[in-house]
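Q: Convert this sequence to structure tokens.
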Amino acid sequence: MSEGKLYIFLVDEEEAGERLDAYLSEHIPGLSRSRLQKAIKSGECRVAGTERVKPSYRLKCAERIELAFAPPRPLDVVAEEIPLDVVFEDESIVVVNKPAGMVTHPAPGHTSGTLVNALLAHCKNLSGIGGVLRPGIVHRLDAGTSGLLVVAKSDEAHVALSRQLMERTMKRRYVAIIWGKMPLDEGTIDMPIGRSKRDRKKMAVSLDGGKEAVTHYRVIDTYEPFQYITLKLETGRTHQIRVHLSHIGRPVLGDYVYGGRRIRRGKTSRESESRAGEALKLIDRQALHAEALVLRHPLSGELMEFVAPPPADFKAVLELISS
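A:
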């Protein structure tokens, strides 16, 4: 193994509390955990500038990890000329309206066609934080979720934006079409989320060992058997909105993973069942869209707000159920 390769990562909010060796194993899938543990024990890895951390060290949000050795590249991430809906761009950041179906960054099974592949062709450089697979990526959207996200073009911007996430000053607002009716017209879902014990590929509400997860919601309108709602994230756990809504029996329409494609027969009128079936034909993913993003510019400190309306499939469902 040749030396000289430097990997830099910045721990995001949803990854806080993970073991160092597990974190590195997830972010550099080309290496075994035993090899990573050896690198950690030998001092090749630093966390927040500290040498000789243990593989079992529990990471904190916004901590910088440096791994100085040359592992085989887990994936060959190449620039691809993929059209991007760029909402804003300057020398520090780029705000993108991600289409549904686009994976945010490469991973096993998704080595091309991702937002990172497109960004590498669009930008001359991105923040090196995040390593080979996630350059510039500050936060993510699920593949089936459309909408706004911000990408850092410099390490300085990346650190500043990650701090805003950690301090919960970056605001993210979503809209969703859900099955059934929320218990109140406005409220908060405060339930910890962790990896599902039944299916490790899914997340679930976990009262035993889950991480804090808080979602605020407000009902916009009701169209039997659906509601159109807006949601604000206070925390940013994986699949947070989808898991929270599914757990309380109000899954997002169209969500294959968390129960959003099952019509609740017998609980609604035949007319509503027919409308639900037509709605499912119009959207082949979860009806969830990141509509607004509010942040402070990482260099100037200017308060910035970006808004992107839902895409055509989402609008088509709204038109159907509201008619």
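The chain is about 20% helix and 25% strand.
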